[in-house]
C-alpha cells in the first residue's frame, strides 16, 4: 500500500470538499482552483491550467527519455438535485456530483501523491483533470488547445466507477466499450393562426405526431451488434401555452446512439433524410443541429494489456462483465493521440446508479483506482 492512513484521510476530505461544491460543465473554475491547490503540495515538474476551458494538467517527468502516459479524470458535476443526508452533500441547489467525478479526481490526486514520492525513471506522466465531460465538449476542447501539444501522450488511460459491479471489481475489455451518441435538436417553423381558423396557418402538429414514432423506428440491431442504432425522444414542444393560438412552431429533441462512429454517420444520414422529407410534406421550414456529441470509446489492445497486467499484479479481480455499455463517454477522443483504454471500477451491486439523486462515490475506491494506475506507470516507465 503506497498511501498512508493520513493520506487516505486527507484524500477523502478532498473528495468530500469537491462533492460539496459541484460545478457544471464549462463552469468548473473553483473546482480547478481546488485541484491546483492540492497539486501544488505534490511539487509536479509542471502544471498547465486553462486547458480546453478550466482543465488542469500536472506533469511528473523522469530523468531519461521515454513515452508520455496520460491519466484522465473529469472536473464537472450534473444539473441534478442531490438527495442525501451525508455531511458532505452538495451546497449548490440543483447541482450534484452524482456521477463520481469527485471520486475520480481524488484517485488522480492519490496517484499524484505516489508520483511525488517515486518519480518515473523515464518518460513523463500527465495527470489530466478534464472539463466538460458530461456535455461531450471537454475532451475535444482539451485536444484542440495549443498548450496540449506539449503534453501529447503516447498512451492514455482512464477509469469510471460503475454501480452494479461488485465493489472493487474491474470490468475491462478490448474494442468498443462506450457508444457514440449525440443530441439532435429539430426546429419546425410554420405559421400561427387563430384557434378558430387553423386552416389559415401552417401547423407543425402533423409533422411532430409522425416524427416522434418514426425517429424511434430508425433504431435497429440488437445491442451490442455492429449495426446497433437507437433513437430516444427526450423533449418536444408544440406551439405556445395558449388556447387561442393554433401552433406555428415545434421543437423536437432526440438522442442518437450507435456502437461506433461509423454507425453514427449512417444513423445521422437516415434521421436527416426523414426530418427533411417530413418538413417538406407539411410545408414547414426546417432547421436542426447536433449537441452533446460523443465519439465511441474504443479500448486499444496495447493499452488494455498494460491495465490487465497491472490488475493481475495487484491481485484485483477483473473480467469483461457488462461491456460494452450503451452509455457514452468523451474519453474516446484521446484515441486520436495513440492507444487508450478505460476500465470500469465496481461501486457495488446495489449501489445507487450513476446520475441518480441519491448516488455518492464510495471512498474505498480511491486507493484501489490509484494503485492500479501506479502499477501501470511502474511497469511502463519504472518508478524510482
Comma- or semicolon-separated keywords:
Aminopeptidase; 2 domains; Alpha-Beta Plaits; 384 residues; four-stranded antiparallel β-sheet
Spell out the blueprint of helices and strands.
Elements: H1 5-20, H2 29-40, E1 46-51, E2 55-61, E3 64-74, H3 101-117, E4 122-130, H4 138-144, E5 155-163, E6 170-171, E7 175-178, E8 180-189, E9 193-194, H5 205-216, E10 229-238, E11 245-246, E12 249-258, H6 261-281, E13 285-294, E14 297-299, H7 301-313, E15 318-319, E16 340-348, H8 365-380
Parallel strand pairs: 3-4, 3-5, 5-16, 6-15
Antiparallel strand pairs: 1-2, 2-4, 6-16, 7-14, 8-12, 8-13, 9-11, 10-12
Helix pairs in contact: 1-3, 3-8, 5-6, 7-8
Can you give a write-up of this model?
With 384 residues, the chain is of the alpha/beta class. It folds into two domains: 5-177 and 296-380, Aminopeptidase; 180-294, Alpha-Beta Plaits, CATH 3.30.70. Helix content is 30%, strand content 28%. The protein contains eight helices and 16 strands. The strands form four sheets. Strands 1-2-4-3-5-16-6-15 form an eight-stranded mixed beta sheet, sandwiched between helices. A four-stranded antiparallel beta sheet has the order 10-12-8-13, covered by helices on one side. Strands 7-14 form a two-stranded antiparallel ribbon. Helix 1 runs antiparallel to helix 3 (101-117) and helix 3 (101-117) packs across helix 8 (365-380). The radius of gyration is 23 Å and the shape is elongated. It comes from Rhizobium quercicola. InterPro entries: Amidohydrolase (IPR017439), Bact_exopeptidase_dim_dom (IPR036264), Peptidase_M20 (IPR002933), Peptidase_M20_dimer (IPR011650). One of its GO terms (molecular function) is metal ion binding.
Amino acid at each position: 500500500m503506497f498511501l498512508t492512513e493520513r493520506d487516505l484521510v486527507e484524500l477523502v476530505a478532498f473528495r468530500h470538499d469537491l462533492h460539496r461544491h459541484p460545478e457544471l460543465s464549462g463552469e468548473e473554475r473553483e473546482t480547478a482552483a481546488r485541484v491546483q491547490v492540492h497539486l501544488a503540495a505534490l511539487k509536479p515538474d509542471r502544471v498547465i491550467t486553462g486547458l480546453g476551458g478550466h482543465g488542469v494538467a500536472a506533469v511528473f517527468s523522469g530523468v531519461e527519455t521515454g513515452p508520455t502516459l496520460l491519466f484522465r479524470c473529469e472536473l464537472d458535476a450534473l444539473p441534478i438535485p442531490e438527495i442525501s443526508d451525508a455531511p458532505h452533500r452538495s451546497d449548490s441547489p440543483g447541482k450534484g456530483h452524482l456521477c463520481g467525478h469527485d471520486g475520480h479526481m481524488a484517485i488522480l490526486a492519490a496517484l499524484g501523491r505516489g508520483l511525488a514520492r517515486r518519480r518515473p525513471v523515464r518518460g513523463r506522466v500527465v495527470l489530466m483533470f478534464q472539463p466538460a465531460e458530461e456535455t461531450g465538449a471537454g475532451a475535444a476542447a482539451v485536444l484542440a488547445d495549443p498548450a496540449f501539444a506539449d503534453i501529447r501522450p503516447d498512451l492514455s488511460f482512464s477509469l469510471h466507477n460503475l454501480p452494479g459491479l461488485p465493489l472493487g471489481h474491474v470490468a475491462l475489455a478490448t474494442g468498443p466499450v462506450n457508444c457514440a451518441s449525440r443530441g439532435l435538436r429539430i426546429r419546425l417553423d410554420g405559421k400561427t393562426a387563430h384557434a378558430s381558423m387553423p386552416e389559415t396557418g401552417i401547423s407543425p402538429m402533423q409533422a411532430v405526431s409522425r416524427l416522434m414514432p418514426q425517429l424511434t423506428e430508425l433504431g435497429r440491431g440488437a445491442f451490442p451488434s455492429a449495426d446497433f442504432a437507437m433513437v430516444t425522444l427526450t423533449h418536444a414542444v408544440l406551439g405556445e401555452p395558449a388556447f387561442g393560438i393554433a401552433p406555428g412552431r415545434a421543437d423536437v429533441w432526440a438522442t442518437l446512439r450507435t456502437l461506433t462512429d461509423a454507425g453514427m454517420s449512417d444513423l445521422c444520414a437516415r434521421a436527416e433524410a426523414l426530418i427533411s422529407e417530413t418538413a417538406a410534406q407539411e410545408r414547414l421550414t426546417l432547421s436542426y443541429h447536433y449537441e452533446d456529441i460523443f465519439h465511441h470509446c474504443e479500448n486499444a489492445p496495447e493499452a488494455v494489456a498494460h491495465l490487465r497486467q497491472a490488475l493481475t499484479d495487484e491481485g484485483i479481480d477483473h473480467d469483461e462483465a457488462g461491456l460494452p455499455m450503451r452509455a457514452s463517454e468523451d474519453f474516446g477522443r484521446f484515441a486520436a493521440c495513440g492507444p487508450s483504454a478505460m476500465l470500469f471500477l465496481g461501486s457495488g451491486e446495489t449501489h445507487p446508479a450513476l446520475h441518480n439523486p441519491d448516488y455518492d462515490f464510495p471512498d474505498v475506491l480511491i486507493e484501489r483506482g490509484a494503485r492500479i494506475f501506479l502499477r501501470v506507470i511502474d511497469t511502463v516507465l519504472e518508478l524510482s
